[in-house]
Amino acid sequence: MSKLANILFSKELQRRLDANNAAITVMAVHPGGVGTFYHQLIFQWFFAWLLSFIFLTPEQGAYSPAFAAASPDVRADPKKYEGKFLCPIGVLTEVSKQADDQDLAKELWQTTDSVLESIGV
Questions:
Q1: Contact in structure between 17 and 110 (CB atoms under 8 Å)
Q2: Short-list 34, 19, 40, CA closest to 82
Q3: Closest CA relative to residue 28, chosen from 44, 45, 11
Q4: Could you give the angle at which helices 2-19 and 102-118 cross, rounded to 10 degrees?
Q5: Which of 10, 60, 84, 110 shows a CA-CA span of 20 to 30 A to 31?
Q6: How far is Cα 1 from Cα 54, in angstroms, rounded to an integer?
Q7: Do 9 and 108 meet the contact criterion of CB atoms below 8 Å apart?
C-alpha cells in the first residue's frame, strides 16, 4: 500500500506542477529489495554473504534514485518520465489500474492535506 500511495502522490504532484507550468519532473522510484538490516543480525558476515544472493547492496539500491535525479536521459526527455514509476535500474514500469486512478490520487492528496492541517503543519 505504501508503494501505491507513493505512486499516486507522485502522479498528483506532477499534475499540479504541470498545471502551474513548473519545469519539474516527479517520479516514484522503487530501489529494489535492498539489504539494509545485516548489521542487526548475529553472524553478520554470514548473513551478509547469504542474503547478497537475494538483496541488493545499499549502493546498488541507490542506482534508481540517482538515475531519477541525475540521468541525462531524464533531462533530455523529461515528458517521458513525468509522473512515472521507475524500477531498478531506471526502468520505466507500468503501474496497476489503481495506481493510475486520478480520482484516488486527488483523494490521497486531499486526505494528506487535511491530516497535515489538523496537526498544524
A1: no
A2: 19
A3: 11
A4: 90
A5: 110
A6: 22
A7: yes
Contact partners, residue 72, CB within 8 Å, separation at least 6: none
User: In whole angstroms, how far apart are CA 98 and each of 4, 101, 103, 119?
Assistant: 8, 5, 10, 29
Distance CA 88, CA 51 (A): 18
Dihedral sign from CA coordinates of 39, 31, 9, 24: positive
Taking phi over 0 as left and psi of -120 to 50 as alpha, with beta for the rest, 83 belongs to: left
At which residue does the C-alpha cell 486520478 appear?
Answer: 102
Whether the full predicted model's pTM is greater than 0.85, yes or no, is no
The phi-psi region of residue 5 (left if phi > 0; otherwise alpha if psi is between -120 and 50; otherwise beta) is: alpha
DSSP secondary structure letters along 75-108:
HH-HHHHTTEEEETTTEEE---TGGG-HHHHHHH
Handedness of CA 10, 1, 87, 51 (dihedral sign): positive
